[in-house]
Amino acid sequence: AVVFGWWAQVAEKVGGPLVYKQIPVPKPGPDEILVKMRYSGVCHTDLHALNGDWPLPVKMPLVGGHEGAGHVVAKGELVKEFEIGDAAGIKWLNGSCLSCEFCRQTDESCCADAALSGYTVDGTFQQYAIGKAALASKISKGVPLDAAAPVLCAGITVYKGLKESGARPGETVAIVGAGGGLGSLAIQYARAMGLRVVGIDGGSEKQAMCKDLGAEAFVDFTQSKDLVADVKAATPGGLGAHAVILLAVSEKPFQQATEYVRSRGTVVAIGLPANAYLKAPVLNTVVRMITIKGSYVGNRQDGVEALDFFERGLIKAPFKTAPLKDLPKIFELMEQGKIAGRYVLEIPE
Ligand code: 8ID
Ligand code: ZN
C-alpha cells in the first residue's frame, strides 16, 4: 500500500519521456540502507539507459541515477556499516552477490548478479534511494555532498581506469573526452597520481577548462587536420602517450587510439558509445606491443581510495547544479555535447 509519495524522475519506457512525479515508498531490506538524497550527478550512462543504447536489458519503469550522495535515514537489521544520519553514497554497483568467484576476488563489477543503480534497480534521481550497505560508500562528516556526488561514478571509474593503464608518475596519458564529466575528473586524478595529461575534446570552453584542470596540452578533435600527429607531437619526444583513456561517446577514437599510443603503451576503453567496436591493425599492435583493455567502474576499495583523494582536497572538478525537475534539459545539453564538466542535481528536501 502507498504510505506517502516522494518525488522522482521516472522513465516509463525506453526512449522516455521522463515524468516528474511522486512514487510509493519502499522499505530497505535487512542488508540495505535508505538514503535521503541531497545531490545526484548526471552521468552519460543515465542517458544511454534512457535511450536503450546497449544490448543489456534495462528495468522499466525506471528511476535513473547512480552518483547519489545524502544521509542514511533507515537501515535493515543486518546493517553494521552505517548509522542513521551518516553521509552515504549510492553508486552504479548497488549490490553484488559477494560470494561468486569475481566478488571473492573483489571484482564486484564482474559479478553476474550485480544490481545496477538506475539500470536494473531504481537509482538516485529521487528523494530517497536504496542500496546494499556493503556496496554503498561511506562519506566523511563535513564533506560537501554536491562536489562529492560525481566522484561516486565518474571519479571512481577514471581512478580505476588510470590504475588499470599501468601509467607511472611522470608518464603521459592522453584523455579522450577530457572536457566531459569523466574527463574533467580524469585530468584531476591523473595529476594527483603524478601523471602528465594531453586532453582531447572539442571547443574553446572545454579547452580552457582542461587547461585550468592541469592538462599540459589540448588537441581539439573538431579542428585538428591530423589528430594522430597532433597528439603525438604533444607527448615527450613525439613518441605518443604511455596510456590512452577513452571516455568519448563516439566510436572513432576507439579505432584511432592505438595510432597515438606509445610502443609498449596501453589503451583503456571506458566510454560506452552505442553499437561501437574496438578495431586495431594486428601488425601495429603486435610489433609495437600495445595493450588494449576495458575498465568498468571500480571495486569497494577503489571507491574508498577515490573518495580519499577527494576528501584530501586533491580533486577539484567544476560542476553546475540544477534542480531535479530540470533533468530533461540536462539530458538535452548532454546529447548535444554542450556540457563542460558535470551537472549535479539538487534533490528537493
Ligand atoms: O565503468 C565504465 N566503463 C563507465 C562508467 C561511467 C561512464 C563508463 N561510462 C561511460 C558513459 O556511459 C559514457 O559512454 O563513459 C562515457 C562518458 O561519460 P560522461 O563523461 O558522463 O559523458 P560526457 O560528459 O557526455 O562526456 C563525453 C565527452 O566526449 C567528448 C564530448 O565532447 C564530451 O565532452 N567527445 C565525443 I562525444 N567525441 C569525441 C572525440 N571524437 C570526444 N572527445 C574527443 N574525441
Ligand atoms: Zn556513471
UniProtKB/TrEMBL annotation:
The protein's required cofactors: Zn(2+)
Record carries keyword Metal-binding: yes
UniProt xrefs under SUPFAM superfamilies: GroES-like, NAD(P)-binding Rossmann-fold domains
EC number: 1.1.1.1
Any one GO molecular function term: zinc ion binding
First-tier enzyme category under EC: oxidoreductase
Protein's name in the database: alcohol dehydrogenase
A GO CC term attached to the entry: cytoplasm
Keywords attached to this entry: Metal-binding, NAD, Oxidoreductase, Zinc
PANTHER family in the cross-refs: ALCOHOL DEHYDROGENASE 1-RELATED (PTHR42940:SF3)
Domain Enoyl reductase (ER), chain residue ranges per copy: 15-345
Keyword Translocase appears in the UniProt entry: no
InterPro entries: ADH-like_C, ADH-like_N, ADH_Zn_CS, ER, GroES-like_sf, NAD(P)-bd_dom_sf
Highest taxon listed in the record's lineage: Eukaryota
Pfam family, one: ADH_zinc_N
Similarity comment: Belongs to the zinc-containing alcohol dehydrogenase family.
